[in-house]
Amino acid sequence: MRAALITGITGQDGGYLARYLLAAGWRVLGTTRSIHSPRLASDISGAVTLIEWDMHDTRVMAAALALHKPSAIYNLAARSSGAGMFDEPVEISEDNGIAVTRLLEAIRMADSDIRFCQASSSEMFGRVETGIQTERTPFLPRSPYGAAKLYAHSMVDIYRRHHGMFACSAIFYNHESPHRSDEFVTGKIARGVARIRLGLAGELKLGNLDARRDWGYAPDYMEAMYLMLEHPVADDYVVATGETHTVREFCDVAFRHVGLDYRDYVTDDPEGHCRAVEMPLCGDAGKALRILGWRPRTKFVDLVRLMVDDALRIHTTT
Asked: Quick one: pLDDT at residue 273?
């Protein structure tokens, strides 16, 4: 049985990817700083083997790879973006940039035949001026988070070209699910709607309602990552829906789903506004469709409803 190793397995993406791999018949390894305090979802905790891991120590990672012998590695470990893309720039650079180089070196030391996929980010494009982004769009990051992701993305390309490793990057646009935390506006809205509908709150404070995002569904995006490592040739792919929606639209769909009007409950929070006016990022996943046969399956409206329904379930049972 083939083994796949997932860094960041306790996060939103890691859980969905683990479920996908387990259903496909893989043995799944998950990394953690301490196996004594795992935070895996209950439905996968018994099926995943946790191993201690230190993204700051190349030799420790190489030893773990030599011992457990995965044939694929998915790197989802990173300091989250959300509202914190400008916070702790040194730590972001270390964890989202340099640590990826250490991991690539660990693979080269342990077994250069291991296939590797990096979770890159649309934030690498940053200060776009017009249109929709493809794999050929120039990168102009506007935050420490985007810059660190771009460094890691560049190192993946270098290891692929110079060392001949099967290394690729999934350039993810915003992707959401019921597991999104309140650090992200989508999670904040879904839980806020649930609390208001159940009489636990009377308002929801948000920032710029006209901010636009290309929002997809996390499980769909994990399938794209899997297909990238199953393909015979390593390459980078934009993973996106190709359409944008405003925070206002997200609120409208979420509140209407529970029979309410967002205009009666959403109030302005000046601290939640973006630091600068920006052109919305929107990705063209045509290359992924042509080569991998991948396309997003979950529509924006269905994604919003899924998140609200799950938030209602949680608040009703607690």
From this structure: 52
At 122-163, the pLDDT tens digits run 999 998 877 899 999 999 999 999 999 999 999 999 999 999
Task: Say if pTM beats, i.e. exceeds, 0.85.
Answer: yes
pLDDT of residue 272: 55
| Cα dihedral value 28, 159, 165, 226, nearest 10 | 40
Residue 43: predicted pLDDT = 86
Calculate the alpha carbon distances from 45 to 18, 42, 68, 163, 218 in Å.
10, 5, 18, 35, 20
Which distant-in-sequence residues (6+ apart) come within 8 Å of 67 by Cβ? Answer: none
Confidence of residue 38 (pLDDT cuts 50, 70, 90): low
Judging by beta carbons within 10 Å of its beta carbon (0-12, 13-18, 19+), is residue 104 exposed, middle or buried? buried
* Contact call for residues 307 and 187 (beta carbons, < 8 A): yes
Residue numbers annotated as active site? 121, 123, 145
**65 vs 111: CA distance, rounded Å:** 8
Q: Residue 318: its pLDDT value, please? A: 67
**Complete domains list, the chain, with CATH:** 3-175+215-239 (3.40.50.720), 179-213+244-280+299-317 (3.90.25.10)
